[in-house]
Amino acid sequence: MALEGLAGALVIAFVAASIATVIRLAPSGSAESLTEPQKTPFLGGGAPDTHAWQRYHIRYYPMTLLFIAFEMEMMFMYPWAVVFVEEGGKAMMEMGMFLAILSVGIVYGWREGIFRWQ
Amino acid sequence: MAIAILRRLAGAAPAPAFPAIGAGMRAAADDLFLDGRLIRADSIRHARILLVAGPVREADQDDIRRLHDQMLHPRATLWWKSNPVPDFAEPATCDEDDPVAAIEAIHRALIEGARDSEPDILPNEPPNPWRGKGDYGQGGEGMMGGTPYGRPMAMTDDDLRDGLALDAYTAPFGPFLPMLPPGLKLSVTLQGDVIQTAKLLRPPSAQAEAYDGTVTALRALGRFLPILGLEAHAVRCLEAARSLSAGKPIELAKIRQFLFWSGALAAIPSGIGMVEDTDVRMRVERWLAALDESPTGGLDGSATMSPLKPARLVDLLRGREWSEAILIVNSFDTDTLISLAPVEAEDAETEGRAREDGIRMDHEGHGTHAHGATGT
Amino acid sequence: MTQVLAIMVLPLFLLAGIVAAAVLDRAVPPLVAGRSLKASFVGPITVASSRAMGQTGATEHPDTISWILAPILYFTLAAIGLSVVPFAPGVVAADLDAGIVLWGACESLTVVAVFLHGWSANSPLPLIGAYRYVAIGLPAMLLSMFVLIAAALPAQSLAVTDIVEAQRSVWNIVRQPAGFVLFLMLGLSLSLRGPFDFADPYDLAGGTTAEISGAARLTWWLARLAMLVSVSAMTATVFLGGYLGPVLPGFVWLVVKTGLVLVVLVGAGEVFARLPPDRMMNLIWLALLPLSFLMLVAVGVELLLWG
């Protein structure tokens, strides 16, 4: 069942990617090639002095670290969800503790100002 | 065959036009795009027609040329109650109040191939010569200098909010960006999406929109709401403004009700763009209150603040995140904005020179800035 | 055999969904704006043709490969996400034991696709849109995973087919109404719409789309609509019982429910205001995420007491 399912997903992925590629790369109605002034980045009239790529100042950087903690936590939650009904109260307690610890993490992060845009 | 069908269908599509709006034409342009036969393009790349509405300032001529060349083929320009900028061969003009028919005709002719796509105006040259020079083909000597791939890279600077020294990106924004008032051109230095410094290059074009209670408030809301993602509500406001100007009755209760449920007021951060003890949210509340006024009379123009000597727009924008800055700029009517954005003589003169200086300094500062990270 | 059927139905489902979404996109805004309703099937097709005809542009030295791949990836993710949705009892293109894990993977890679799309243009407005989207896309994804886990609890399985079957007694929307709303928010975020459109907003002149035109814009547009359809079908399946329903055949029920969610999403995209990104990030972490925890606990307690 798992293998068949995976094969099905792969077939769908292949078909969808092919369709999107054909649409994206289809020849357009215009034969003219792009010129340098045509390629100037759009700024509403002006031209930039520098490339836009830069060491970008990401304002939410600390948030992404907290995000990783939660993302890891999902690994634990997937199997937990399957056995929850069998295990009953014990599973409930475990996840309750786990979520409580993570919530403390959010509160701590909030106090430290990691959700501020800086 | 397939191409022919494609052409027929494309010809029936609404004409995507990018408006470059000059003095006194903002309201007319807003009304124009309420027409379902047109699409207002947010970016010049989405447009097939550059619609120049109203007179073009001398200083804006280069920007118009650049915008024109950024458009993709097939493309055309229509000068609506405007004076064509030199270098445009055989410009199409339209002096009627309603240019929709003219735009549609040009659009269809372009699609069907009856009208040639307009050629570039600017020379087909890279912004800076660089190809093949230097050890790595970057255009300079050794590891340094030159302009790799035609432009230099941004250089580091300290940040206003956390002092972290990352790249400060400076670029001119405007004068024809959809979310900025027409004519306003700012040189903005960004770190990430936070504005470090803003410098006025050109003030907004005068619009001569007399204060008219409800109509003014509706137009202001119509320009403000798209920033909050409420394009449909904005259309409702602009349509109501148009009806009211034409003397038709409108239903204002619905507008207020919809705006209440949209959470528009709650979405605006409080305390930004503070001028004379009113912030952006209060100014929006003022518009909402003005909806109750009779079309003429009630609050007069002076109540929506006019002599604003001490405040300057560029100071209000400093340290603001991009979307907050856009909210601030759009919370003022054009006249107020012009008074907030005084043209300082030296600003205008040094516009070009300052930017060149900036680049040169960046190059010289390459070595020292590499160790400039100060941490938090 | 039924799997082959599902694989053949899926593209048709997606195509019909895209057309429906495009028609709604043209019909709903005038409705919200209080203008006369003009729903037409021709409208979206003419717009698509217009885009297909235009020249595909570029900026100075973009990351061309990423720029081409981003919309393709986005579209493909929408299709893969849809592949775990059962169209009728037993008719599913990818019947995986861990269906919602695959769906979750599609969600997270969407952030990558949107980011790449904005980043590769080498132009400031798309670049800001790209980085801004990540700030909202990441925590929004967390929300959805908590909500989906809560949906998986009563089914005792991560397979989407089991989640549907577990709703025979009561739909998940009754079990966790707040979860349904949170999942709709995720739908808006995945398809870059209205209050969650932080990648392509007006204040960035179209954000990641500001530099694209022609075929590139057409593909991006289709991919966004495809993602909208995919997330609508998933919502209908996980919260509204999917193909379950009396009298009518299962497939019809799924189509009806998907259409309903589609209308709600397109409408919500027009009527709610968008917060500045920092405020939205705070809202998600400090209000919505704790709410999703509570939802999970509530479902757990309910199962222990009455399950």
Automatic annotation (TrEMBL), chain B:
It comes from the Bacteria. Residues 117-140, 345-376 are annotated as: Disordered. Residues 350-367 have a biased composition (Basic and acidic residues). This is Uncharacterized protein. It comes from Jiella pelagia.
Automatic annotation (TrEMBL), chain C:
The chain crosses the membrane at residues 66-88, 100-119, 131-153, 173-192, 225-245, 251-272, 284-306. It holds the Pfam family NADHdh. One of its GO terms (molecular function) is NADH dehydrogenase (quinone) (non-electrogenic) activity. InterPro entries: NADH_UbQ_OxRdtase_su1/FPO. The keyword NAD applies. Its EC number is 1.6.5.9. It is a multi-pass membrane protein. Keywords: Membrane, NAD, Oxidoreductase, Transmembrane, Transmembrane helix. Belongs to the complex I subunit 1 family. This is NADH-quinone oxidoreductase subunit H.
